[in-house]
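To assess whether ligand presence alters the predicted conformation, the chain was also submitted together with zinc ion. Input:
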Amino acid sequence: MPTCPYCCTTWSYKETWKAMWSFHKLKCPHCGEKSFHSRKSRLKTGSASMYGALFPLVSIIPVTLLLTGPLFFLGVVVVFAYMPKLIELSREEEPLI
Ligand SMILES: [Zn+2]
């Protein structure tokens, strides 16, 4: 779970879930300061999203065309449920490159 870089409070799963929908700045529910996704956090969440979307294609299990839709949906749900655990915060916006 992310820790606020200003007040050093660790956010709960629910607080992180609510805050993560603002993609640019994340407002701390404890001190109100705005922080950013760290570079590492953006790389992790981006990779997880891509893997979740491509899960039916990269799965080792042979997938029939009928299962592709439900597996895609399942991959997206699992990734979004796990996403708050991947988020890390920083005081300043860090460039990806
Ligand atoms: Zn805070």
